[in-house]
Design brief:
alpha+beta; 10 helices; rod-shaped; disordered N terminus; disordered C terminus
């Protein structure tokens, strides 16, 4: 079916009739060639079909004749001359819409708004963002950093197209599609001279039961130190430090130890040693690209999720990549 142009104005007598865009296309072809016969040949129609389309357009526009029928061809009337620029504007607008939609489909245009939690910005997100921009330079990209709960709120409100989030415990995530990126192991960061530095294999958290801990919160619940709580002892938090770089400084100075996820491992300073933890003591933290369930995912967002998965292999080789969305944590 032909597309319809439908506009209704509230003022009496100002209602614009429904116009199939094919009528305007036929009108422009006839105006361009000055002939029903040539326009019909160009369109692949019969001359009578072209004549019927023009007659229908004239009727829809109040009966004004658009062409004078001459012995040899046709000529625009004054009404037809008035209509030409408007019909051309409609045609340009439709062509522009088609081009923009094709650009979205081909990830050659449009926008991508995403957010990520802080440690994902250490290696994974920069790698993925650089790769995405190199492949799709026409996409406008904006990024936010935040904690997982805040990012999910922004996602739900429609301010983000996707969010890179993490969870170490069951969470109410039923409203989201979770595109699994990786399961990242945890390390304990100790000073370079610590007895565990250079330990040949993974250690148990029980060996750190008497250690001073550095955490981003005065309470371990809801942080990476949840792993310690599950192991059966409550960590002694000696210093509350928010930033990863500052935590490393405290560790290097011998003021305590801290947990470091694999996403941040590449940015650890040389006077800090990372000791792997046994899986049963510190289960890997799941990282997802989250989108809103039931909301259409743009081609740019789909492409970025694919690039994020490539980044797991390229930028975080110590983590376990995932290729399919798992069941939502209960």
């Amino acid at each position: 079916m032909a597309a319809m142009l439908t506009t209704h104005d509230g003022a009496a007598g100002d209602a614009v009739p429904d116009l199939p865009t094919v009528w305007l296309r036929v009108f422009l072809e006839v105006a361009r060639h000055g002939s029903f016969t040539v326009a019909a040949r160009t369109l692949g129609w019969t001359q009578s079909a072209v004549s019927r389309q023009i007659s229908a357009l004239e009727s829809a526009l109040g009966g004004a004749r658009l062409f004078d029928r001459l012995p040899r061809g046709v000529r625009l009337t004054e009404a037809g001359q008035v209509l030409v620029p408007h019909a051309e504007a409609v045609a340009r607008s439709l062509h522009g819409a088609v081009r923009e939609l094709a650009a979205l489909r081909d990830v050659a245009g449009g926008r991508l708004r995403f957010g990520a939690f802080a440690t994902a910005d250490a290696a994974l997100v920069p790698w993925a963002l650089a790769a995405f921009r190199a492949r799709h330079p026409g996409v406008r990209v904006s990024r936010e950093e935040g904690l997982t709960p805040g990012l999910l709120d922004r996602l739900t409100a429609g301010h983000l197209d996707l969010a890179v989030v993490s969870t170490t415990r069951p969470a109410p995530l039923e409203a989201y599609e979770l595109h699994h990126l990786l399961d990242e192991p945890l390390y304990v960061a100790v000073p370079a001279g610590h007895p565990l530095a250079g330990h040949p294999g993974p250690v148990g958290l029980g060996r750190l039961a008497d250690a001073d801990w550095i955490s981003g919160s005065p309470r371990p619940e809801g942080t990476l130190l949840d792993a310690v709580l599950r192991h059966g002892f409550r960590p002694r938090i000696a210093h509350v430090v928010a930033e990863w770089t500052a935590k490393q400084g405290y560790v290097a100075a011998g003021l305590g130890v801290t947990l470091v996820p694999a996403l941040a491992a590449a940015s650890v300073r040389p006077d800090v040693a990372l000791v792997p933890l046994r899986d049963e003591d510190a289960p890997a933290r799941a990282v997802y690209a989250a989108t809103v369930r039931g909301r259409s995912l743009s081609a740019a967002a789909r492409a970025f999720i694919g690039v994020l998965r490539e980044g797991v292999v390229a930028a975080v080789p110590s983590a376990t990549a995932g290729s399919a969305a798992p069941a939502v944590p209960g």
